[in-house]
Amino acid sequence: MYNRWMVKSIPFYFFIAAIALIYIANGHYADKTMREINKTEKNLKEMEYEFKTAKQEVIFRSKESELAKAVEPLGLKPLTVPPLRIIDTLEEK
């Protein structure tokens, strides 16, 4: 009688074992996902720092004084007098 009960319970034991395996696999999957999230967040912070550094460099180089220094070897100089306005007096009406 006891032996028959053991044989009858084998599918239940397999079911419990399968649930335990799924539980363990789910834990490993969650750990892996958390590691990937942390890695992505770290990478994102590094990219934010790089972006901010590049943005500051662009802002610095686009200043008028820095542009003047950059184009001076090309022979270009900033205007000292305002530009002249050309007006067409021969407009046809």
From TrEMBL:
Name the domain of life: Bacteria
Coiled-coil region: 30-57
Can you tell me where the transmembrane regions are?
12-30
Which InterPro entries does this chain map to? FtsL-like
- Pfam families per the record? FtsL_2
Which keywords has UniProt assigned to this entry? Coiled coil, Membrane, Transmembrane, Transmembrane helix
Q: What is this protein called?
A: Cell division protein FtsL
Q: Which organism is it from?
A: Hanamia caeni
